Amino acid sequence: MLRTLPAALPSSLTLVLLIAGCAGKGADSATPNGGGESVTQEPDQAKATVKFENPGGMWMPGQMTAHAETLKSLGLTYDPAALTDPTAFPLGAIVSLGGCSASFVSPEGLIVTNHHCVTRYLQSNSTPENNLLDNGYLAKTRADEKSGGPAARVFVTTAFTDVTDKVVGGLEGVADDKRGGQIEDRRKQLVGTCEGGRAGVRCTVASFYEGAQFYQIEQTELRDVRLVYAPHEGIGVFGGDIDNWRWPRHTGDFSFLRAYVGKDGQPADYSPENVPFKPKHHLKVATDKATEGSLVMVAGYPGRTQRLKTSAEAQQAADWYYSRQIQLYEELIAVMEGIGKLDPKASIAGASRLRGLHNYLLNFRGMRDGLVKGGVAGDKARIEGELQTWIEADEARKAKYGDVLAQMAALTTEKAKTRERDAAHDELVRGSLLLGAAETIVRLADERAKPDDQRRLGMQTRDERDLEQSMQALQANYHPDLDRAVFRLYLQRASKLPEAERPEVLTAIVGKKGTITDLDIDRALDKLYKATKLGDAVVRLEALRAASTKSIKASSDPFIKLALKLKPLNEANKKQSEATTGAMASLRPRYIEALRAFHNGTLAPDANSTLRVTFGTIRGYSPSAGAPVYKPFTSVSEMVKKNTGEEPFAAPKGALDAVSARRFGPYAAPELGEVPVNFLADLDITGGNSGSATLNARGEITGLVFDGNIEAMASDWVFMPPITRSIHVDIRYVLWVMDAVDGADHLLTELGVTPAV
């Protein structure tokens, strides 16, 4: 049964808990995929093992003191205060890959993360003759470890500093269209001061609580990152999209990287002379293995949640945004897969993007269903109504917050009037990798004409190395037929809009108004792709390095000329957006202040790709009211039963043989009598948490989080305790595959594990 909180819920509980208690009663009853009797148990049996109901929350390190007593009661064996310091153990071992999370697991810079987080590493080192995306890779020696390319990064967080007053202090009364620019200028100045010419240090000023609070974050940027080991796709991607976002799972979603630095110990670009990075902290393999009901934590860099958005924004997402994106992703997947079937090189170039599209497609379907069918959007509106009632009940509160929700709703409604045109504009200007490269070159030329401290964020001298390396890295994802086909799709989509909703950039690209046919689009694309030289990485890099007002005006490349043509349209679109954003930025802090006062407790900020900690317990769930409860562990024998020999259920022979011979060694779980594969926990995660270490009560790594469950996709908007679950690969399965299947003995030894199978 899905549990809801009592009607007389105390107002002192956090807003997240208030929201959580009212969700889930209408959750989508998606049919469980596979599993049978071995993965279910009776609801009464499961209820007896549950000791903790997670209220949700992706907590900043500084907020962890508020949870000290809860963590101790759940069995934490070390001082919870350690979790407030990003430089101490265990958080000091947690790193960002710039989109995924990971952690150091040896003093020699060895990093563990998810298999799907190293797709670009596999892609950039693949050929049609040796496709590592399919075959996996194991470096037998350090010399065999393969570069992830010039844009590969590892970020190690070293400091958090509250700079709210320095960013937004004194901006009351500033015009809406000016506020955003002033905030950007202040953030830019803080970043410049923070970095202060320190090599290898990257600083950002991140927004929390919808712009109500800002923190300066310092990180060490490691630029030489290499692929060490990724299992065969029959382990790393077992189940594919059929199993994605679903339970039970049997996926070995893990891989290993290594970070390198110069001989002086400082961050450096790739060089054969570099040496492994020596982290201050690294995680050890769990001695206390995962069991049902035990405490687990995930530390990582979750990307984006929407829990502090308004009900009007949630309703728009439910009514329009997710449906639109789902249709787009379906069309993109069809186009890209069609091109990939014709050319193996195009298939490799598009692999990372295509896997991401499949992942988002399933995620967004679940998100839409949760908001609409699951009633999450309605719940959010009801809760917001309770907030408004609370505000109206007190004259002081009414004077301070009374109009904030109405004003925010009005801005959301106004912005919706141009949402189709705005979305199509964004699609077109980002629709081609070559157009994106050309626009970067044009923008950098413009910014170079200014003093460095007046340049836009991302276009300063500090950014030029990264821009160059991104230009080089683009080559691994570029294929002319693929790029053209994707750009063509975006143009077709825009041309089908009513003329009043078409973005001006469509006319600028195709060269005509009115009826636009596929022939018109193809003629425009012929002019671009037949004459451009930007498909050559050397040409792109030279153009970027030489970018100046003079060189841009003299360029004959059609993509450069198009980027110049689109520049005033982009500027106009940006100015219009800044006015709305600035108006909302003046309202959101009042809204957040009202929320904090309303619940009178600790409020977790929305995820924003900064270091966070979430905690909970290992436990199953019932996917719908009255359904049996899933057991929280799966096993290797279940993986064998699911194996068909055909993708996506095609486990490698070595794994099947090891299971058949019951070569489990020390990796078997006593309660299962065999090796566990994946487990469930009630942790609060989202995209970006992929690859995050799952820590036990000792701070040891007991698994890696890699997925969530389809029934709770809308938890990005409202956390739902009864059904929100995270899916983890058990560290015992990771070690067993390394030992019994792939013979990665040297890596096991580096992890402090003695090979035993």
From TrEMBL:
<dbReference type="InterPro" id="IPR019500">
    <property type="entry name" value="Pep_S46"/>
</dbReference>
<comment type="function">
    <text>Catalyzes the removal of dipeptides from the N-terminus of oligopeptides.</text>
</comment>
<feature type="signal peptide">
    <location>
        <begin position="1"/>
        <end position="22"/>
    </location>
</feature>
<protein>
    <recommendedName>
        <fullName>Dipeptidyl-peptidase</fullName>
        <ecNumber>3.4.14.-</ecNumber>
    </recommendedName>
</protein>
<keyword id="KW-0645">Protease</keyword>
<comment type="similarity">
    <text>Belongs to the peptidase S46 family.</text>
</comment>
<keyword id="KW-0720">Serine protease</keyword>
<keyword id="KW-0378">Hydrolase</keyword>
<dbReference type="InterPro" id="IPR009003">
    <property type="entry name" value="Peptidase_S1_PA"/>
</dbReference>
<keyword id="KW-0031">Aminopeptidase</keyword>
<dbReference type="Pfam" id="PF10459">
    <property type="entry name" value="Peptidase_S46"/>
</dbReference>
<keyword id="KW-0732">Signal</keyword>
